[in-house]
Amino acid sequence: MTDQDQQQAGRQPVLEAVGLTKHFEVTDRFGQTKLVRALEEADLALHPGKTVGLVGESGSGKTTLARLLALFHPATSGEIKLDGRPVSHSKDGERDYYRQVQLIFQDPFASLNPLKTVRYTLGRALRIHGHARKGADLEDKIIELLGKVNLTPAETFIDKLPHELSGGQRQRVVIARALAVQPKVLLGDEPISMLDVSIRLDVLNLLANLRDSEDLALLYITHDIASARYLCDSITVLYAGQLVEGGPVDAVIQQPRHPYTRLLLDSSPDPGRTVTAEGRRAGLFELEGSLGEPPNLSDPPPGCRFHPRCPFAMDECRTELPARTEFPDGHWARCWLHQKQQSHLLQLDEEKR
Ligand SMILES: Nc1ncnc2c1ncn2[C@@H]1O[C@H](COP(=O)(O)OP(=O)(O)OP(=O)(O)O)[C@@H](O)[C@H]1O
Q1: Closest ligand 1 atom to 241 CA
Q2: Within its chain, how far is the Cα of 247 from the centroid?
Q3: What are the residues whose beta carbons fall under 8 Å from the beta carbon of 95, sequence distance 6 or more?
Q4: What are the structural domains, with CATH classification, of the chain?
């Protein structure tokens, strides 16, 4: 353990999800009510100065978890803790929470009022949260925020409306507005996925710099495991509403312990690895297409929801989600292979890759 790791180990999480579950009640066109089981008993911990990547394919429940953490939806069950204390859902409790936890959405254009200038947007956030009132002080703080997100010189941007900015500049304004609140936690829900490919890296680097300079706890939500690898200290993998694996980024990427994480890695372009003619790495999931689609969450498979696609599925997988198996260095997975002493099957296959 490095000195930094030791310091981190002693720091308590700033934000924690404990057993967070969300079932949405929806009514179909025939008037029938059903439950969409979007998230099941999710545990997650965010630490100051660290980034957790939440990775999963479309519809796996990533946004649902972000929205629960931002208090946009009430949880069906489970708890959110800020600085070790359960969040109070009183008006004052929620106002205090929003001062500390800010959510950045995928689409910066939809996040900004199209009729308001950058000065107004940032000034309003500063005033509402009591970090500046008016006049020169307010102007100085707006300029400081623009500097933090590299929108300089500030006079080039301060009087612009959202449509006069590029996508990347708009997302920087959204990030500056979140920083105006002086939060401890930033939740980034696919913050680069709608940006031009050429500027995605710049925005990731900006988030990394802000995390370090402001000691922010960052949740980075993405379907792109390669970008999570670039930005994150640890990764948590979500499949069809169930968290299936997590741990330090290198451990998860170098030695995935859940077959679904293997699928994600095998599907992710990586120039350093063997690639088949179809653009996928040679390996277990070459026949991914024939292994089926993610389940419908209004009628999910029982047990481990990945079992219909899993080449290792055993009887247990079809009835019960296993407990977490913990490995050294904080790496864990929920997979029967480990509970039934069958990990070698995954390892044998790993050697063939
Ligand atoms: N407000 C809602 N009402 C009903 N169902 C919802 C609601 N929000 C999300 N869902 C359902 O919950 C499941 C998870 O959706 P969610 O948006 O969290 O996934 P995601 O991983 O963020 O996907 P994407 O990457 O496509 O945004 C989906 O089946 C979705 O249809």
Answers
A1: 14
A2: 14
A3: none
A4: 23-232 (3.40.50.300), 255-271+281-346 (no CATH)
Residue whose CB lies within 8 A of the most ligand 1 atoms, among 54, 57, 63, 219, for a mutation test: 63
Q: What is the mean pLDDT of the chain?
A: 87
Please tell me the distance from the alpha carbon of residue 256 to that of residue 281, in angstroms, as a whole number: 15
Q: Strands (DSSP E) along 15-72, which ranges?
A: 15-27, 33-46, 51-55
| pLDDT tens column, 84-99 | 999 988 888 888 899 9
Pick the atom of ligand 1 nearest to 24's CA: 4
In one-letter notation, the amino acid at residue 61 is G
The pLDDT of residue 130 is above 90: no
Helical axes 343-352 vs 259-267, angle rounded to 10°: 20
Q: Is 180 in the pocket of ligand 1 (CB under 6 A)?
A: no
Ligand 1 atom showing the smallest separation from residue 189 Cα: 22
Question: What residue's CA is closest to ligand 1, atom 4?
Answer: 24
Whether the CB of 58 sits within 6 Å of ligand 1: yes
Residue of 23, 58, 62, 64 to test ligand 1 pocket, by largest number of atoms within 8 Å of CB: 64
Secondary structure (3-state) at 248: strand
- The Cα 180–Cα 183 span in angstroms is 8
Judged against a pLDDT cut of 70, whether residue 263 lies above it is answered with yes
Q: With CA atoms as reference, report the closest residue to 208 among 182, 223, 228, 181.
A: 228
Prediction pTM value: 0.89
Per DSSP, the three-state class of 17 is strand
DSSP states of 174-193 as a string? HHHHHHHT--SEEEEESTTT
Rounded to the nearest angstrom, the distance between the alpha carbon of 144 and the centre of ligand 1 is 36
- Pairing assessment for the beta strands 85-86 and 77-82 based on DSSP bridges: antiparallel
Q: Which residue has the tokens 């599925």?
A: 313
What is d(CA 284, CA 298) in angstroms, rounded to the nearest whole number?
29
For residue 342 the two structure tokens come to: 């069958």
ipTM: 0.97
What spacing in Å lies between the alpha carbon of 59 and ligand 1's midpoint? Answer: 5
